[in-house]
Amino acid sequence: MGLDRWDPFREMLTLREAMDRLVRQSISGTGQLISSIRPDSIPMDVIERDDAFEVRAAVPGVRPDDVEVIVQGERLTVRAESRREEEQRGEAWLMREQRTGSMQRTITLPSPVSSERAEAKIDYGVLTLRLPKAQEPRPHRISVNAGARQTARTGDESGRDHATERDRVTEESQESFPASDPPSWTPEKV
Question: Three-state DSSP class for 99?
Fold first, then answer.
């Protein structure tokens, strides 16, 4: 009968291996982890291309009419409604595991997207979105003209006063936008 010596370092290594395995499983299966924690969450894959983001979202059993996609700046929200078939009397269900009801997922993309040029389609239960990146504002040169006083000082050969022609306010514009009441605006609804 042989005696084994107890080695505390060997015990620590097996504990470390078990912890490493646990961490690897939780990181590699992030999508599965999210869907198992929040059953109403939609699993997504996001790919960044040079000019657009491509998003693939799993929405099994959902009709295109029951999907709502909202893009606002960098924020993307996908909502889907999976409807349950009507149960018939006398049916004996052995299993019923397909998810039904509302699902929603909101993510923030690294940069704003142009919602006007976005494309969406559903194929075999996968919603595919192509979200073009918004164009960054480019510098725009604004030409500077001489003001009314500058023109009057330099003298105009024609003898006409162009300043009063440019500054004339018509009665129609006064009625539509009175000076005491600045125009109001409402933000676009998305």
Answer: coil
pLDDT: is 182 or 75 the higher one?
75
Rounded to an integer, what distance in angstroms lies between the CA atom of residue 109 and that of residue 127? 17
Asked if the structure places residue 56 within a domain, the reply is yes
For 87-111, write each residue's pLDDT tens digit: 777 788 788 777 778 889 999 999 9
Can you give the CATH number for the domain in which 127 is found?
A: 2.60.40.790
Any idea which residue has 């040079």 for tokens? Answer: 50
Q: Is residue 12 part of a domain?
A: no
Number of domains in the chain: 1
pTM: 0.51
Whether residue 117 is contained in a domain is answered as yes
Beta bridge partners, 107, equal 76
> What residue numbers bound the domain in which 60 lies?
39-84+99-136
Structural domain includes residue 167: no
CB within 8 A of 113, min separation 6: which ones?
52, 53, 71, 73, 74, 76, 131, 132, 133, 134
Whether the per-residue pLDDT at 63 is higher than 70: the answer is yes
- Integer Cα distance of 105 and 70 in angstroms: 11
